[in-house]
Design goal:
Helices cover 30% and strands 17% of the residues. With 572 residues, it is α+β, with helices and mostly antiparallel strands. The strands form 5 sheets. A 7-stranded mixed beta sheet has the order 8-9-10-1-11-19-12, sandwiched between helices. A 6-stranded mixed beta sheet has the order 14-18-13-17-15-16. The longest helix has 21 residues.
Amino acid sequence: MRKQLIALLALLLSFALVAAACGSDDDDASDDSSSSASTSSSADEPAEDDDEPTADMSESNEETEANSDNADSGAVDTGPVAGGTMLIQSTQVPRHLNGTVQSGYATAVPGTQLNASPLLIDENFEPQPYLAESWQISDDGLSVTLNLVEGAVFHDGEPITSEDVAFSITTSRDNHPFRTMFAPVTSVDTPDDLTAVINLSEPHPAILLAMSPGLLPIIPEHVYNDGQEIREHPCNAGECFVGSGPFTLAEYEAGSIIRLEAFEDFFIPERPYLDEIIIEIVPDPATITLGLENGTTDLALPPGEANIVRLQGNDDVIVTAEGHAAVGQVNWLEFNLADPSLSNVEVRRAIADGIDREFLTDVLQQGTTIATTTGIHQGSPFHNPDTEHYGAGVEAAQQRLADAGVDASSISFAVDYIPPVQLAQAEYVVQVLQDIGFEAELNISPDFPTWATRVATGEHQMTLNNVWNWGDPVIGVHRSYLSTNNVGAIWTNNTGYNNPQVDALLAQAGSTFDVAERIDLYHQMQTIVNEDVPMVYLSNGVFWQAFQPRVQNPPIGVWGQLGPMHEVWLAE
């Protein structure tokens, strides 16, 4: 059944790549895009805004189908009802809310409510209008023209113009951790207030997907272009925050609560339906589970495998694997290659041999994830299953070290992990290291920001991590391997990996619309990376969501909760 799931994911994502790469010439944009009504993503990346196509998990996996309620079940749908407050609980603490300079789920969930993007991506991975009512890609693939909706304004009442779009794109290009996302952008022309022409140095197959809500929020130039460092700008959160999306920032207490209120002048009439969204940061996963069970929490990603399984047995809560298809989560153990012991590839290969992926996925994660062997998600048409997998066992790992003349007992390791949900996996890795013969212990960070800072600045030796493909390898894969992207930010090349051959393959794959050629190039890249072992690939994550039956039109689109929730409503 897992093979059927993977096959369907691959088919759906291949459609996505064809659509993003080839389906937007002038005729297509005119016939399909400009005439389409603006749609929501049907509620990071994660993929989100980018999540799994609505059909994949529930229709392809018998276990998921048995344990997931249909998102249409629960309250009777009598049509959208305006008003009400939806409470979302999360363990993740955003550092701020400006998605042009910060990636990740914690930022994107509130960020996509606060800021609109040029495009939405529907359940078939087709681009749909949002701030851009239509768009065209030139025949040579070297320019994209966006035609903006008329009358859209920021939360302070200032009009949203093509200058703001240009500013947002160049800001993201120059500051976002996903450097490859807009790297080909040479300039953005603004012939009038409602037209932005994006000029590219080479064809960019991921350009439309890159203009999704969680990837390209449109921010106000009149606020941010004031000479201050944008990554540390005071208006990234707090009272001076000015957005472009369906909700305004009414309250922000770092690490505690984010309260969003409906923006009355949002450019889509009679949206959003909700009066208010409250995002409550809750460090304790058990508290989130209890809130879902007693009906006080409307929506959450249940943290931890045991909580997912527990909620699946509750008839009063809807639990589904639908959503987040575009995220493409890959869980791995990554190495800091600057560490003297880990600079030895045979040490890294030995650790890879000692880890039992099936034990991690089937036992520790209770079947809620899928074992994987490369950094490209199994649902992607670019995934290469025919790479070196390792996993031969502890004895094979010990023999490998003996053959290389490495004395494991002389080496000490500390294992970092994202708190709190990766603790069990981290303890398992420590045990494997000890079984091989290394000295090993946990390094416990008190919260996500502390962990992220340690990894970004290279203070760690190895860490468990989860990194997302974000719909296209150009956006979510290249960043982890390009030698030029070791830039001291989380979810970039934090291993310090440097292989000129891999750099060249990624450059080729990121500048052609030919899907067959891209598949071959990415297959070669995965083969080389797996030989070098900058990380050990563990599993593909599934974004299990739990919500109350009263939540209607829930965020189960390809970006899940990483997309705007302006069309979510609460049944009375």
